[in-house]
Amino acid sequence: MSTHAPNEARVIPLRRPQAAPPAPPAPKEPLWRDLVGDVLRRERIAQERTLKDVAETARISVPYLSELERGRKEASSEVLAAAAKALGLRLGDLLSLAQDELVRHTRPNRTSGPRAQYDGLCMAA
């Protein structure tokens, strides 16, 4: 038996359409200062040198070099050149290594998008 009155309409709620799950956020590109800092730290550690040693050779403060390595400070080209030289690198070497890091961080999904077709053409030539 029904519990509704005979002259009343019975309301049946409709199912709400399920929305597609949100797309995962695009990976965030790293900042240049983070990439340069990573290279500085990696090179210093590879040479088994301390922050103090490299900072003294570069004639910059230890806290400032630490901030550079952690990507907290945006260094001038003069400071970067001094830090690179203290590590036995040229400024161009340091920047090239940082660029390699940038490419490594941004290259994995090259199968689509406007540059993918261009990259394929360049590689085929």
Structure report:
By secondary structure, the chain is mostly helical. Helix content is 54%, strand content 0%. It is built from 6 helices and no strands. It has helices at residues 32-46, 51-58, 62-69, 77-86, 91-106, 114-124. The protein is rod-shaped, with a radius of gyration of 28 Å. 17% of the residues are buried.
Largest sheet: number of strands, sense, barrel closure: none
Radius of gyration of CA atoms, rounded to a whole number: 28 Å
The count of strands amounts to 0
Helix fraction, binned, reads 40-55%
Shape: rod-shaped
User: Helix/strand-derived class?
Assistant: mainly alpha
Instruction: Give the mean pLDDT.
Output: 83
- In terms of DSSP E residues, the strand content is under 5%
- State the oligomer: single chain
Task: Give the low-pLDDT segments.
Answer: 112-125
Q: N-to-C terminal Cα separation, in Å?
A: 79 Å
The run of helices and strands is HHHHHH
